Amino acid sequence: MDIQDIKNRFGIIGNSPLLNRAIDVAWQVAPTDISVLIQGESGSGKEVFSHIIHQLSARKHGPFIAVNCGAIPEGTIDSELFGHEKGSFTGAHEARKGYFEVVDSGTIFLDEVGELPLGTQARLLRVLETGEYIRVGSSKVQKTNVRVVAATNVDVYEAVKKGRFREDLYYRLNTVPLRIPSLRERKEDINLLFRKFIVDFSDKYRSPGVQLTPDAQETLMKYSWPGNVRQLKNIAEQIAVLEKERVVDSPILSKYLPIEQPVSSLPVFVKDAGKEDFSERDLLYKVLFDMKKDMVDLKKLVVELIKEGVSPGTYEQNSPYINQLYKEVKPSAGYLGEESTHPTLTIHNPNQGSKGNDYMSYDDQEAEEIEESLSLVEKESDLIKKALKKHKGKRKAAARELGISERTLYRKIKDLNLD
Ligand SMILES: Nc1ncnc2c1ncn2[C@@H]1O[C@H](COP(=O)(O)OP(=O)(O)O)[C@@H](O)[C@H]1O
Ligand SMILES: [Mg+2]
User: Fold this and answer.
1) Does the record bear Cell membrane in its keywords (predicted)?
2) Which ligand is nearest to the CA of 43?
3) Closest approach atom of ligand 1 to CA 48
4) I want to staple 151 with a disulfide (CB 3.0 to 4.6 A). Which of 38, 39, 83, 109 is the partner?
5) Which atom of ligand 1 is nearest to the CA of 41?
6) How does the average pLDDT of the chain come out, rounded?
7) How does pLDDT run across 168-196, given as a tens digit for each residue?
8) Within this chain, do residues 170 and 38 fall inside the same structural domain, yes or no?
9) How many whole angstroms from 111 Cα to the centroid of ligand 2?
């Protein structure tokens, strides 16, 4: 067996030195029982490598389970991994085996291992060092023989420095580090991969296939591929299905590539000794939080204005800001202060005995739209529903689209009763 055999067997495309090096490491470490920590960006092939390690090991006839640690709610993760006894918590009507019990004599792939809560990390360290674990709600120590392959797309050592990941566990998992290169680091493989995917998908969808012009190939190479091979595969699939032209040049190709986010357009927090630096998720929360605060302020403002019984004309003269806001909320309709070629926004003063509590009416339907656009919760659940629908209920994909972690999505689905 040589490296090409491995590539053929596991469908790995590419010849770049970094990729070959990764395959070499996986191949060498596979037959040992050593824990491996696979590091690489999302979509770079970490899961593929976990299969290589299992299949080329003596455990290949044993079970293999891939667990996405980021997708399991904190409250149930111990029970998922280590099992629980009947009645150990509300809803535990039956005893249940955990993955470490089920996978005895096999391999467990712990994806997004950096997301594990600290308590679970302690249990994991124990099972790694002694093979011992305890079901939730039990006191009986059980034994298992499981090989752990873990993966992360973030720098876990950063989490160690911040106290969010146990240092001892980090070293235990990282006995052999395996780094999967991003697509940017192996540009020479991009065209090869694209051609292979186009052939596969044209076959699958019985479409005639496409050819890239040299400038399109260059565009492909220059693109940053934040989603790595997964993204490239995805775009090849779209082109195979949708593209009418048989020869694809750079402008055509560019239509399929999401616009690259220049780094400078993202909010930047200057790292400062002693100050917390924000993860992407923290940032997202902060943005949402600020938005919510703005919304609350706005509502207050509107209520106050209503209380004061100011007529719309007053806004027109005094507050271009309000006009602007209204324009933003409802860009397709006219806004306060515009000539009466459209229904006028009227603000009823409840103190002056206007109908019901219908404070704002544009006409009934419009009023509803205004109401809706002010509800962050509704917008949120709406977006989540849309994302889930778009991805046919696949939470992983939906979460990625929404830019939140699977765990956050899971929680929101529960909180918002979207099940
Ligand atoms: N070198 C490669 N050659 C061909 N396909 C690959 C390669 N690396 C990854 N893939 C494919 O890309 C997709 C993402 O890989 P995956 O292992 O799930 O990434 P990760 O776990 O790092 O997010 C999968 O469909 C996988 O088959
Ligand atoms: Mg993955």
Assistant:
1) no
2) 1
3) 17
4) 38
5) 22
6) 82
7) 999 999 989 999 999 999 999 999 999 99
8) yes
9) 7
User: Which distant-in-sequence residues (6+ apart) come within 8 Å of 373 by Cβ?
Assistant: 329, 330, 379
Interatomic CA distance for residues 419 and 415, integer angstroms? 10
Convert the pLDDT of each residue in 327-346 to its tens digit: 544 434 333 333 333 333 33
In a shared domain, residues 174 and 192? no
Tell me whether residue 353 is in a domain. no
Residue 268: strand, helix, or coil: coil
The structure tokens listed for 194 are 């694209």
Instruction: List the residue whose alpha carbon is closest to atom 8 of ligand 1.
Output: 45
37, 141: one domain:
yes
Ligand nearest to the backbone CA of 182: 1
Give the residue, out of 230, 235, 400, with the most ligand 1 atoms within 8 A of its beta carbon, to mutate for a pocket test: 230
Residue 90: give the domain boundaries: 3-181
Same domain? 75 vs 214: no
Q: Is residue 62 located within the same domain as residue 191?
A: no
**Span from the CA of 47 to the centroid of ligand 2 (angstroms):** 5
Q: Number of folded domains in the chain?
A: 3
What's the pTM? 0.66
Best of 229, 231, 237 to mutate for ligand 1, by most ligand atoms within 8 A of CB? 229
> Is 75 among the domain residues?
yes
Mean pLDDT of 314-339: 45
pLDDT in tens, 199-226: 999 999 999 989 999 999 999 999 999 9
Are 156 and 239 found together in one domain? no
pLDDT of residue 110: 98
For residue 234, the tally of other CB atoms under 10 A from its CB is 14
Helices (H), 73-227: 74-82, 99-102, 118-130, 156-161, 167-173, 190-205, 214-222
Domain final residue, candidates 159, 181, 203:
181
Nearest listed ligand to the Cα of residue 70? 2
Domain boundary among 197, 224, 254: 254
Q: Which residues contact 296 (CB under 8 A, 6 or more apart)?
A: none
Q: Are residues 176 and 188 in the same domain?
A: no
339 within some domain: no
Ligand of minimum distance to the alpha carbon of 236 = 1
What integer pLDDT is reported at residue 406 of this predicted model? 87
Verify that 99 and 198 share a domain, yes or no: no
The reply to whether 79 falls in a domain is yes
CA 317 / ligand 2 centre spacing (Å): 57
Q: How far is the CA of 169 from the centre of ligand 2 (A)?
A: 21
Pocket of ligand 1 (CB under 6 A): 11-14, 40, 42-48, 229-230, 233
